[in-house]
Amino acid sequence: METKPNAEELQKRLSEESKAYGIKEKNAFINYGWLVHVEGFREGFGKEYRLNFKEGLQKVAGQSGRYAAYASASKILHPSAWVVAIPDDKFYLFTLLELSKTLTNIVGLIKDYIVRYRQFSSKIAECDSYARTIDSYLRMIARNNRIAAAKYTRRTAK
Question: Both 14 and 54 in a single domain?
């Protein structure tokens, strides 16, 4: 059975690695330090990228345009007193649309992966079929979004 690591040894290693990358905030390094191993991040660190969510993880993932949605979701997850005054249907639509955007992103990434690596597959026809299936899922998600948005608009117009 493995013993627990020595806390002093871990602190020393954390300090050394933080210093090696010129990082003063240890919590940022603990949470986002792995980003220095993502292609392109290290080269842009301190210029284009930082060790945080908004200017680090989200930016390197190409999702900067989604920051407003993240900020809104964060407010919902960490509510203040103002949240109580907002009607549930507004939260419902926001949650539904953001969930579908997330699903669309994930499904789109899977499709991109399949298209990019299909040439290495021994079952190219299955890759093509799967890509077509993903397209039908994306159309279904878009149709459901339009229905939900129309329903929400009618509900709030009353």
Answer: yes
Given the structure tokens 């999702």, which residue do they identify? 63
Residue 91 to residue 49: CA distance in whole angstroms: 32
Q: Are residues 157 and 81 in the same domain?
A: yes
Cα torsion at 80, 81, 86, 88 (round to 10°)? 70
Is residue 127 within 8 A of residue 118, CB to CB? The reply is yes
Tokens 């669309």 belong to 104
Which tens digit of pLDDT belongs to each residue from 35-55? 888 888 888 877 888 888 888
Q: Which of 32, 62, 92 is the last residue of a domain?
A: 62
Q: Six-digit token pair at 74? A: 């964060």
Query: What backbone phi and psi angles, to 5 degrees, belong to 13?
Result: -65, -40
Does the model's pTM come out above 0.90? no
**Side-chain half-sphere CA neighbours of 16 within 13 A:** 6
**Do both 32 and 75 map to the same domain?**
no
- C-alpha distances (whole Å) from 153 to each of 41, 68, 139, 141 are 42, 21, 21, 18
DSSP H or E segment with residue 54: none
